[in-house]
Design a protein that fits this description.
The complex is a heterodimer of chains A (377) and B (167). Helix content of chain A is 48%, strand content 12%. Chain A has 16 helices and 8 strands. Chain A has a 3-stranded antiparallel beta sheet. The radius of gyration of chain A is 22 Å and the shape is globular. Chain A starts with a helix and ends with a helix. Chain B has a domain of 93 residues: NADH:ubiquinone oxidoreductase Nqo5 subunit (Beta Polymerase, domain 2), CATH 3.30.460.80. Chain B is elongated and about 50 Å long. The chains are: A alpha+beta (377), B alpha/beta (167). Chains A and B meet through α9, β6, β7 and β8 of A and β3 and α3 of B.
């Protein structure tokens, strides 16, 4: 017996075989129906193979039979936490193609909604990834504060998640009379709550040990894999569409593009926390200055885009969202392609998770902030 | 009634070449490619047998340096299937649309660009899944979303009485 133990200790002759384990499609940390086929040696991850398509809904095919006023309503089923930005992308594409200038009021309302939605999305990301890493308290804090934003959405446009608010030509309804007052109250309140988030997790030594230095994505890899959004910016890849290709009211305001260094899980975490502060700044600059005017321009009943190809990019809470439309001049598009940020981001995980343990993979997944319908489309 | 202090505060990153200069440079270097200014971006159509060498060049050529593949899409046209690459340079901030047509619709095949931009691996798997284009030298060309019983649903002649509603 002693001989065998000595053999195990002194040589590495007895090796654990590699074996395959399915993580998901029902695993809580994959946040939806994503299956990762892990190749493991003991607890060490050797390969991560994402299997997707469980909720592939064929939105691109469906849009070929829909009109340009109907398409935005499908897009908020993709990344349901950035539904307004997705709606806005299609609206902007149609407006730019027809060279329709929307009223200033619309631009301001859309931008405020963008940032509120980004905050709501980051709050949900914050609480859910806290839960993934074993801090359940975070979940209750995040959902409690997110409720304030959803109530504001509900009051103006009737929906809490899939807003359907931005349509080609403007927004669907004017803002509710309470909107400005409630947004300002929320910003004041959230400025006090946000430091609590840091106290709860960011400064926590257990949390830091689990994320610092874990899953490093270099800047070169971020560009090569097309990783955008806060995930890409944490690696130093300056890719904020709001800054580089500004749309709506973003050209009018002062804000910083947060770019990190290092690209580990903690930096991705830190960057989203910083982005929340920046979103509050943007909302504060806009909320008192919403110009008077119409909330939409009258569009034709049947919208036909001139023959040609169009590409529109916006920044969602997850990264660069692109819509590519090929029009043959009819009322339905010939082909629509959605470039969703989650799709490109997901496939960088295999590259950076190799050599880490399963628990670290959970930390990487948590800080990548994946939304599965965004990937499956 | 825009707030006066808030006019155009954003500092844009400046393209180091204008679109016209980009088109000029590309047409000098690739005389047999079709280059034009599209609605928004310069567009270049290259032949399928020169695709890989062309892509390799525009990535490694430092005045061009297209290092970020933003989007890769497939479009089914009556005579051929087209793959459209949206490329951006993170150093020079310019944008280019590259189009390549397959030789025919029956056995569409193109060279992969996975070795140039790793993100293309999954874009190409998606295009193979939905449009049936084979990518030569692709490391792992399998279906991505659908199972093997499906045809290629984004093709215009795809018929499915259950899942597709004709309008």
């Amino acid at each position: 017996m002693a001989e065998i133990i000595e053999k195990i200790v002194t040589t590495d002759e007895i090796k654990t075989d590699e074996y395959l384990v399915n993580m998901g499609p029902q695993h809580p940390s994959t946040h939806g129906v994503l299956r990762l086929l892990l190749k493991l040696e003991g607890e060490i991850v050797h390969n991560v193979e994402p299997h997707i398509g469980y909720i592939h809904s064929g939105i691109e095919k469906m849009t070929e039979a829909l009109s340009y006023t109907q398409i935005p309503h499908l897009t908020d089923r993709m990344d349901y936490l950035s539904s307004h930005m997705n709606n806005e992308a299609v609206s902007l594409l149609v407006e730019n193609a027809l060279q329709v200038e929307v009223p200033e009021r619309v631009k301001y309302i859309r931008t405020i909604f963008d940032e509120l939605q980004r905050l709501a999305s980051h709050q949900l990301w914050w609480c859910a990834s806290g839960m993934d890493l074993g801090a359940l308290t975070a979940f209750f804090y995040g959902l409690r504060d997110r409720e304030d934003i959803l109530d504001i959405f509900e009051e103006t446009c009737g929906a809490r998640l899939t807003l359907n608010y931005s349509v080609p030509g403007g927004v669907m309804f004017d803002i509710h009379p309470n909107f400005q007052r409630r947004v300002k109250a929320f910003v004041t309140k959230f400025r006090k709550t946000l430091p609590e988030y840091d106290k709860l997790l960011t400064g926590n030594i257990i949390f830091q040990n689990r994320t610092k230095g874990v899953g490093i994505l270099t800047k070169e890899d971020a560009i090569a894999y097309g990783v955008t959004g806060p995930t890409g910016r944490a690696s130093g890849f300056s890719c904020d569409v709001r800054k580089h290709h500004p749309y709506s009211a973003y050209p009018y305001i002062k804000f910083d593009e947060k770019v990190g260094t290092g690209g580990d899980s903690f930096m991705r975490w830190k960057l989203r926390m910083d982005e929340m502060w920046e979103s509050l700044n943007i909302i504060e600059q806009l909320i008192d200055n919403i110009p008077e005017g119409d909330y939409a321009v009258k569009m034709k009943g049947v919208i036909k885009l001139p023959e040609g190809e169009y590409y529109q990019r916006v920044e969602t809470a997850r990264g660069e969202f692109g819509v590519y439309v090929v029009s043959d001049g009819k009322k339905n598009p010939y082909r629509v392609k959605f470039r969703s940020p989650g799709f490109s981001n997901l496939f960088a995980i295999n590259h950076i998770a190799k050599g880490w343990k399963i628990a670290d993979l959970v930390a990487i997944m948590a800080t990548f902030d994946l939304v599965i319908p965004d990937i499956d489309r | 009634m825009i707030h006066q202090n808030m006019q155009n505060c954003t500092t844009l990153k400046i393209q180091s070449m204008t679109n016209e200069q980009l088109i000029e440079k590309l047409s000098a270097a690739y005389p047999d490619a079709v280059i034009k200014q599209g609605n928004q971006y310069p567009e270049i159509t290259v032949s399928f047998d020169k695709l890989h060498a062309f892509m390799q060049n525009i990535k490694s050529d430092s005045p061009l340096a297209f290092d970020y593949l933003v989007c890769q899409s497939g479009v089914d046209y009556p005579a051929h299937i087209q793959v459209v690459y949206h490329l951006e340079s993170t150093t020079h901030q310019h944008f280019l649309v590259v189009k390549v047509n397959t030789e025919n619709r029956e056995t569409p095949a193109l060279d992969t660009v996975t070795d140039i931009w790793p993100t293309a691996e999954f874009h190409e798997r998606e295009i193979y899944d939905l449009l049936g284009i084979k990518f030569n030298n692709h490391p792992d060309l399998r279906r991505l979303f659908l199972d093997d019983t499906w045809g290629f649903p984004l093709r215009k002649d795809f018929k499915d009485d259950i899942h597709v509603v004709e309008r």
